[in-house]
Design a protein that fits this description.
By secondary structure, the chain is of the alpha+beta class. The protein has a single domain, classed as SOS response associated peptidase-like (hypothetical protein yedk fold, Alpha-Beta Complex). It is built from 5 helices and 9 strands; from the N terminus they run βαβββαβββββααα.
Length: 256
């Protein structure tokens, strides 16, 4: 799962993702800071298409899907988060099932995202970037909600997640449950979508999109520097510990 990511800037969305950003699609100012739960971010959905051409359009929305019929944009309980959605349950969960059934899939453009690593015994935030320097396109689901008080149409979206217990890099993230074996932790990961599959994810029938897109990328897709830093720290700990002034890693309120 992910609770903080760095959204791609407007120029990157237009040039790299080739998505149109119309003024009418910007529900609020284009985000310039890292995005957290219920903050404003950007997602890319299918635009008008023909038999030979697919268009993509980008719009701003709340990162945290608003349930159909909800009285407000955010749940009353702070413990309820909808910025991540387990892909195994989206067809049944009331917040997501209508959007899933309608094929309202999206891409979430991100320069990087953060996940916690606990291998040293304390949390080190890993900033995950692509090895090729390109932004991530993370698989998501979007919907629109009408404010019952004002009539305003509010776009919102969630990142889809899947199990990563068997992934040699991603299974190093998140705090493990000591009562469970490694194969039963049910650690979660976002689902990056490669460029050649963008239009398929946005436009193809559900079965085809699910089969071809819902998988984790190989280790080689990830910038290895953050893992190397943790490995070096672990090695120093095994040899007697880091220096007293060594810091465990960046705080979650900053991706850089």
């Amino acid at each position: 799962m992910c609770n903080l990511y760095n959204a791609s800037p407007k120029e990157e969305v237009e040039r790299y993702f080739r998505a149109s950003i119309k003024p009418s699609l910007l529900a609020s100012a284009y985000p310039t800071a890292p995005v957290g739960p219920f903050g404003t971010g950007v997602f890319i959905r299918a635009g008008q298409s023909s038999q030979t051409h697919f268009e993509r359009e980008a719009l701003t929305g709340q990162w945290g899907m608003i349930a159909p019929g909800a009285a407000s944009r955010r749940p009353e309980s702070r413990s309820i988060l909808t910025n991540n959605a387990r892909i195994e349950g989206v067809a049944q969960r009331s917040t997501y099932r209508a959007a899933w059934a309608r094929g309202q899939r999206c891409l979430i453009p991100a320069q990087s995202f953060q996940e916690p690593n606990w291998e040293t015994g304390r949390n080190i935030w890993w900033t995950l970037k692509r090895a090729d320097g390109a932004p991530w396109a993370l698989a998501g689901l979007w919907s629109e909600w009408q404010d019952p008080q004002t009539g305003e149409i509010v776009p919102s979206y969630s990142m889809l997640t899947m199990n990563c217990d068997e992934h040699p890099l991603l299974n190093r993230l998140h705090k493990p449950d000591p009562k469970l074996p490694p194969s039963a932790q049910d650690k979660r990961s976002t689902i990056p979508v490669e460029p050649e599959l963008w239009d398929l994810w946005l436009n193809a029938p559900l079965d085809e999109a699910f089969e071809r897109v819902v998988k984790l990328p190989p280790v080689e897709c990830f910038d290895p520097s953050i893992a190397a830093e943790t490995d070096a720290l672990l090695a120093r700990l095994r040899q007697g510990g880091p220096s007293k002034d060594e810091k465990p890693g960046p705080r979650q309120d900053s991706l850089f």
